[in-house]
Design a protein that fits this description.
Layout lengths: L1 E5 L6 H12 L2 E4 H10 L3 H12 L5 H17 L11 E4 L5 H13 L6 E6 L2 H9 L1 E3 L6 E3 L26 H15 L1 H7 L10 E5 L4 H13 L17
Helix pairs in contact: 1-9, 2-3, 4-5
This protein binds BIS(adenosine)-5'-pentaphosphate.
The site of BIS(adenosine)-5'-pentaphosphate (AP5) has 37 residues, from helix 1, helix 2, helix 3, helix 6 and strand 6.
């Protein structure tokens, strides 16, 4: 499955991506996570990205394209018996503007492995701000919580690895507003871009997802949008639960 998750900051892309990964094993490539990891390790990429992320602006395309291409090439190199594999991934937070989308198209078209689906999550700004302002993340394993909608059973500790949960630096009110404005101006136009396209299976590429309701409800909509035409249900059945 080659999948793009599109939607405003805080709408729940990361939450849904982790559930899909747990149930189907598709590799998640989340540019925000990769940038935060680079910043935490103070790599040259992290140092270049830091000011943009802190301001809620997009990191320059050449930096982000590079990390995505590297990840895709790593997936590509995992061939068996010399046969290039069918690429399988979930892109969370990428592409975020037209130039990134065109770069991705070029990479995939050269390999004749186009996207299967783009899920466009939709929710009003008031609920998005509530989700972002209550978010807590685990700095160690990346688990995502919400103080009301999805609290850790261990309070301020991650229920998976025990690390102390933190609030992301860019989840401050001013930065949230800036990130939403950047999304509307630069990323939302990609919905029209993908709406015109057909997926790898010949079906419409774009599938709109109502992101209201609890994470499990949204996950059912996600699976319906994919299963309707593309996939069997997972062998295990059911979602992957909390602290995703
Ligand atoms: P990134 O980390 O990608 O941030 P984002 O797109 O702003 O998305 P978020 O991670 O904030 O939200 P999400 O949709 O994943 O929601 P989540 O599942 O966490 O990017 C950060 C920065 O990096 C950018 O601002 C930019 O600077 C840079 N960057 C990244 N990619 C880039 C690119 N391609 N180009 C250039 N720059 C780039 O959920 C949010 C909260 O809601 C959580 O608390 C969760 O528990 C809760 N929640 C989730 N679902 C529900 C639900 N159904 N009901 C109630 N609560 C819910």
């Amino acid at each position: 499955m080659r999948l793009v998750l599109l939607g405003a900051p805080g709408i729940g892309k990361g939450t849904q991506a982790r559930r899909l990964q747990a149930d189907y094993g598709w590799q998640v490539i989340a540019t925000g996570d990769l940038l935060r990891e680079a910043m935490a390790n103070a790599t040259p990429l992290g140092e270049q990205a830091r000011a943009y992320v802190a301001r809620g602006e997009l990191v320059p395309d050449e930096l982000v394209n590079q990390i995505v291409i590297e990840r895709l090439q790593t997936l590509e190199s995992q061939s068996s018996a010399g046969v290039p594999p069918a690429l399988s991934f979930i892109l969370d937070g990428y592409p975020r503007n037209l130039s990134q989308a065109q770069m991705l198209d070029t990479f995939l078209n050269e390999r004749r492995q186009p996207l299967h689906a783009v899920l466009a999550f939709e929710l009003d700004d008031e609920q998005i701000v509530q989700r972002l302002s209550g978010r807590r993340i685990c700095p160690q394993c990346g688990a995502i919580y919400h103080i009301v909608a999805n609290p850790s059973r261990r309070g301020e500790q991650c229920e998976r690895c025990g690390a102390t949960l933190i609030t992301r630096e860019d989840d401050q009110p001013d930065t949230i507003r800036r990130r939403l404005a950047v999304y509307r101006a630069q990323t939302e136009p990609l919905i029209a871009y993908y709406e015109r396209q057909t997926g790898a299976d010949g079906l419409p590429l774009l599938r709109r997802i109502d992101a209201s309701g609890d994470p499990e409800t949204v996950y059912q909509r996600v699976r319906n949008a994919l299963f309707r035409d593309l996939l069997p249900p997972p062998a295990s059945g059911g979602g992957s639960g909390r602290g995703v």
